[in-house]
Amino acid sequence: MGDELRYDGRVAIVTGAGNGLGRAHALLLGARGASVVVNDLGGDVHGGGKSSAAADQVVAEIKAAGGNAVANYDSVEDGGSIVQTALDHFGGVDIVINNAGILRDSSFAKMSADDWDLIYRVHVLGAFRVTHAAWPHMRNKGYGRIVMTTSAAGIYGNFGQTNYSMAKMGLIGMANTLAIEGASKNIRVNTIAPLAGSRISETVMPPQMLEALKPEYVAPLAAYLSHESCEESGSLFEVGAGFHAKLRWERTVGHHFQGKSFGPEDVAEKWAEIGDFNDATYPKSIGESLMSILQGVASPFGQGKN
Ligand code: NAI
């Protein structure tokens, strides 16, 4: 076992920290010396209601263990107020764990525009507002650690969760670009796709499985990604029950018609080749992606036209 990772002097905002995964992240960071803003609206799983009890309870737990924490009851849609709480009480913000979330599951055929919008607002707009308010402080300080929380439903799709899948995939895109924009300012941004027993998952998992999937088994990865010693950025991890793994894009060698005229029947003829993952590559950047597309193509970039 390595030396204990500490967060003394660091200020962490954990959104949706009144329950489940956020609570586990907040308790761990608080126990390791971070000053924690425990944000939670205190609503139900579907985004209804409001209460200060959930955040207050976690603040009390952190303090009882000798840590430092303050509650914030705003929705993540009011990200500026959450960051202001960190500034007012602790004088800065070093870590943001965007974790708050709700579900509004329904098949796409039955999904209402409200179900779509609310999921977007809590997950995507909420993470944007909190991160956007924290961003200038991190840039000024030349330091920041940000964790986004996606879901397997976003990565792979899941019946009844078009809204949630859209939002969760959106967070991965946000993290990918923030990792690039934050690189020169020592701001590292990563995404976790957790699996854990909680209010959100208890509706879809049997009790014995929930028992094996404690939120405490996800918190160490979120905490590591939030530590100053961790230089990882722009990465995506699946985590749960003690399992930790990294994901990446894989692309087939494919087929390039390279300027020859071609129609749908030519695409059909090359279908097996286009989908053949033998000798697949793993593009890590937009540059690497474009290289294959532009091979053999006169570069538009050299002609001042693009
Ligand atoms: P949870 O329901 O136990 O906790 C979510 C917390 O977010 C609640 O305390 C809730 O009050 C709070 N919250 C909801 N809307 C908010 C808002 N607008 N502003 C501030 N706080 C708000 O759920 P859980 O499982 O801990 O989920 C945490 C995150 O992990 C969510 O983003 C969820 O989508 C994600 N996730 C969870 C999985 C799991 O297996 N539990 C699987 C994949 C993703």
Automatic annotation (TrEMBL):
Annotated compartments: Peroxisome
GO biological process per UniProt: fatty acid metabolic process
Domain of life: Bacteria
Matches recorded under SMART domains: PKS_KR
Record carries keyword Lipid metabolism: yes
GO molecular function, one term: oxidoreductase activity
Major subcellular site: other
Name of the protein: Short chain dehydrogenase family protein
Organism placement in taxonomy: Bacteria, Pseudomonadati, Pseudomonadota, Betaproteobacteria, Burkholderiales
